[in-house]
């Protein structure tokens, strides 16, 4: 059944008399528990689309429904676990205290229930941060901070996770390692994820669906289903099909350059 | 039996070892000294006082012009029962003014951080109050409020107000966009964003202003006392100036200096305890 439904959505930014058409006629549908990657050239509106779904930006045309709710309605019920590009950890809180933030604000929102809460320490251990539970954010490296951000989103109990290039500031090696950790933690939680990335490899490795977008104005040029078996592990990168998907996506991205 | 030669080498070795141990100790002491927070400034102060003492004695300076530090200390310790109540009055005025100025500034900062319009309306008034020399206002306050503590408290509060206001506005406003967006994604209320994000974010700004303001507030109290008072360290300085009691004057100055150092360090201490997460609290001064 369709869980997230994006219908004919358009978005314009107006600033100092100048109008930018950020998104045009976006139509997308995702089922619950799907891992979706958004990929496309810089400025094609990936972040905008993510923020629209999360109720952080309004739309000019069209309609977005999340389990029958508007984005703002879903936000009020705390349905979103947001992982921005920079990890957005409060420096005055320890790692564990940062994990508590989703439960301390908007306590009327029903999306996250404290009683059903997963043990945050266990979650941190699962991303290899068991020894840093009581450290302050500035005592962690960028990659470690980003892992806290991911653990916080999964541990918040929110059914939908919105990740906007969470790995873009990391080096190649860390990035690869964290992508496997994300794969594992997703496998054990099966949440609906919208994941913005610039990496073809990450998109194919993690996703059930890859949405390829084109720029100016942002449009969906192709939605590709990734039919690779799950659970997936590192050896999937030896799979021929894996590389086939990567070149297929690359093909769609290149098409638009011409 | 050891031979005499062996004995000799042993003694030499022992001496060498002893020397090495002493060297190590010296190095350690040197390290301790240069790394300590208190020792270097203390040494500098002692040097300064020795120089002062020597200069006064060797050059036979008239004690009415410049008393020797030992004479000042003798006077201060000898008549401490006289000085302490006055110091207490000044401290009381300064601290009351400091807390009053801080409370008003933070409250105003909360409003002004929330509304640009309010900021545009109120900030010029605050700036006007700030650029007007406090010495010029002090006599007016005495005229209005008399010789009691009130005008001094108000002057100390006015001095404290502006730096606290500017820093609190900055602290409340200068939050990370990403943090704000994260809070919004959870549909956090304005109030929650204030208490969980803006307020903790402002603490380093508030403390850095408080460190300066706490000694400024002492200055405010003294300026108030100069303009008209019956007690307080500022009053002592003024009176002793009239009667050329230089030792007494220096005693009051010493007490003010000590008060300033203590107050600044208390704020610093609270800051370090409270803001261990903040980078600048790990560094000196
Ligand atoms: N707040 C804003 N005000 C005005 N224009 C904006 C704003 N945010 C985004 N835009 C414009 O909308 C378009 C899409 O921006 P968006 O940030 O969604 O792109 P993106 O795909 O996430 O890019 P990137 O990969 O570089 O992060 C861009 O042309 C951008 O200039
Ligand atoms: Mg973006």
What does this structure look like?
The complex is a heterodimer of chains A (258) and B (285). Chain A is an alpha/beta fold and 258 residues long. Chain A has helices at 46-53, 71-76, 95-104, 120-126, 142-155, 172-189, 200-206, 240-255, and strands at 2-15, 18-31, 35-39, 61-66, 80-83, 160-164, 192-196, 209-214, 219-225. Chain A has two domains: 2-79 and 159-255, Rossmann fold (3-Layer(aba) Sandwich); 89-158, no CATH class. Chain A has a six-stranded mixed beta sheet with strand order 5-6-7-3-8-9, with helices on both faces. Chain A has eight helices and nine strands. By secondary structure, chain B is an all-alpha fold. Chain B has two domains: 1-60; 67-282, MetI-like fold (Orthogonal Bundle). Chain B is built from eleven helices and no strands. In chain B, helix 4 runs antiparallel to helix 9, helix 9 packs antiparallel against helix 11 and helix 10 runs antiparallel to helix 11 (246-274). The model of chain B is unreliable at 281-285 (pLDDT under 50). The chains are: A alpha/beta (258), B mainly alpha (285). The interface between A and B is medium-sized, with 25 and 23 residues. The complex binds adenosine-5'-triphosphate (ATP) and magnesium ion. The site of adenosine-5'-triphosphate has 11 residues of chain A, from strand 1, strand 2 and helix 1.
């Amino acid at each position: 059944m369709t869980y997230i439904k994006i219908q004919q959505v358009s978005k314009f930014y107006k600033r100092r008399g100048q109008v930018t058409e950020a998104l045009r006629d976006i139509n997308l549908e995702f089922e619950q528990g799907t891992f979706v990657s958004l990929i496309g050239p810089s400025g094609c509106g990936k972040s905008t689309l993510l923020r629209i779904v999360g109720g952080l930006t309004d739309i000019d045309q069209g309609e977005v429904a999340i389990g029958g709710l508007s984005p703002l309605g879903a936000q009020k019920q705390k349905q979103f676990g947001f992982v921005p590009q920079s990890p957005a950890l409060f420096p005055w809180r320890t790692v564990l205290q940062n994990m508590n933030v989703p439960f301390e604000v908007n306590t009327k929102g029903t999306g996250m229930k404290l009683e059903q809460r997963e043990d945050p320490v266990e979650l941190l251990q699962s991303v290899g941060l068991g020894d840093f539970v009581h450290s302050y954010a500035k005592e962690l490296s960028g990659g470690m901070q980003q892992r806290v951000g991911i653990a916080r989103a999964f541990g918040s109990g929110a059914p939908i996770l919105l990740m906007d290039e969470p790995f873009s500031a990391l080096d190649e090696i860390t990035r690869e390692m964290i992508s496997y950790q994300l794969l594992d933690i997703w496998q054990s939680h099966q949440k609906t994820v919208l994941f913005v990335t610039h990496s073809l490899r990450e998109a194919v490795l993690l996703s059930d669906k890859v949405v390829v977008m084109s720029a100016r104005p942002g449009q969906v040029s192709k939605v590709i289903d990734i039919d690779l078996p799950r659970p997936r592990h590192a050896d999937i990168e030896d799979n021929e099909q894996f590389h086939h998907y990567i070149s297929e996506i690359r093909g769609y991205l290149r098409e638009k350059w011409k | 039996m050891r031979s005499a030669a062996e004995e000799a080498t042993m003694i030499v070795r022992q001496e060498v070892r002893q020397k090495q141990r002493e060297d190590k100790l010296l190095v350690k002491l040197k390290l301790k000294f240069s790394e300590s927070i208190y020792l270097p400034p203390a040494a500098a102060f002692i040097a300064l006082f020795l120089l002062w003492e020597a200069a006064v004695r060797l050059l036979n300076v008239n004690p009415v012009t410049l008393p020797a530090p030992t004479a000042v200390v003798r006077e201060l310790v000898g008549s401490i029962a006289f000085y302490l109540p006055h110091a207490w009055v000044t401290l009381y005025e300064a601290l009351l003014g400091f807390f009053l100025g801080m409370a008003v500034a933070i409250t105003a900062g909360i409003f002004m951080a929330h509304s640009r319009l309010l900021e545009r309306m109120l900030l010029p008034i605050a700036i006007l109050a700030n650029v007007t020399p406090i010495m010029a206002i002090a006599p007016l306050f005495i005229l209005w409020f008399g010789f009691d503590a009130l005008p001094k408290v108000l002057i100390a509060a006015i001095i404290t107000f502006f730096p606290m206001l500017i820093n609190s506005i900055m602290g409340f406003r200068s939050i990370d966009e990403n943090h704000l967006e994260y809070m919004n994604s959870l549909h956090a209320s304005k109030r929650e964003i204030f208490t969980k994000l803006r307020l903790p974010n402002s603490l380093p700004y508030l403390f850095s202003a408080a460190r300066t303001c706490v000694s400024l507030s002492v200055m405010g109290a003294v300026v108030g006392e100069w303009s008209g008072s019956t007690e307080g360290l500022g009053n002592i300085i003024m009176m002793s100036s009239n009667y050329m009691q230089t030792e007494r004057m220096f005693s009051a100055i010493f007490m003010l200096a000590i008060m300033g150092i203590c107050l600044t360090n208390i704020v610093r201490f609270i800051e370090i305890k409270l803001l261990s997460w903040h980078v600048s609290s790990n560094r000196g001064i």
